[in-house]
Design goal:
The protein has eight helices and six strands. It is α/β, with parallel strands linked by helices.
């Protein structure tokens, strides 16, 4: 596995890369990519860190798994490559943004523009075997991404964490809620969206928090 991350994250992540569990994980991922079709492409596994520098980080959104169908996953949670049909969860995210902020639903489902504004779009598991959801879970990725969340909590101030669904909500335990803001809501998938995702107004609420801490708001 090519472990190439942007310079701003190297000091934060290097200690994890050096640990035995991560070496085992890297071997597992190498074998999977050699023997099976896996997503996302190897050169964008760490895309969440490439587009959102540690210095600029203001918001964290936590997903679970990359999309597992062809040409969807691009290394950013909930995001798909430009030109791809919006998956159901992303459709509901865009619907809530349209309602919350009174703006049009974008044509592109690529959320790179959010990442470049300081939104870390972090899946708990960064790789997956094609058409097999959850196939790379419990192999070490969660240990790594939990460490990332803890480091952000420890090293940064006034970050907004958006935790959607029970799985993401469980990450609250890793966050110092005295110095950061955590917003939770049901998952935006069609199964959970009607239980409180719609009307959660997380996008306007996030911008209000950023304004209060004198940070530039996100153009969602």
């Amino acid at each position: 596995m090519q472990i190439k991350v942007a310079d701003s994250w190297k000091n934060i992540l290097q200690q994890e890369f050096d640990k035995p569990y991560f070496k085992e994980l890297a071997n597992f991922v190498d074998d999977e990519f050699k023997n099976h079709l896996c997503f996302p492409k190897e050169d964008v596994i760490f895309a969440a860190f490439d587009f959102c520098s540690f210095e600029d980080l203001k918001v964290v959104i936590i997903g679970q798994d990359p999309y597992h169908d062809e040409n969807q996953a691009n290394g950013l949670c909930f995001s798909v490559k430009d030109g791809m049909k919006h998956p159901p969860s992303l459709k509901n995210i865009f619907k809530e943004i349209a309602s919350d902020l009174h703006q049009e639903i974008p044509e592109s489902g690529d959320l790179e523009k959010w990442a470049k504004q300081g939104v870390l779009l972090l899946n708990a598991t960064l790789t997956v075997r094609a058409h097999e959801a959850g196939s790379h879970q419990k192999k070490g990725w969660e240990t790594f991404t939990d460490a990332v969340i803890e480091q952000i909590s420890n090293e940064k101030e006034n970050v907004v964490f958006l935790l959607w669904g029970k799985f993401a909500e469980s990450k609250t335990a890793l966050i110092n809620t005295q110095k950061h803001t955590v917003f939770t809501a049901p998952h935006p998938s069609p199964l959970g969206a009607w239980r409180g995702w719609f009307g959660s107004k997380h996008f306007s609420k996030t911008n209000e928090v950023l304004q209060k801490s004198q940070k530039t708001t996100i153009q969602w």
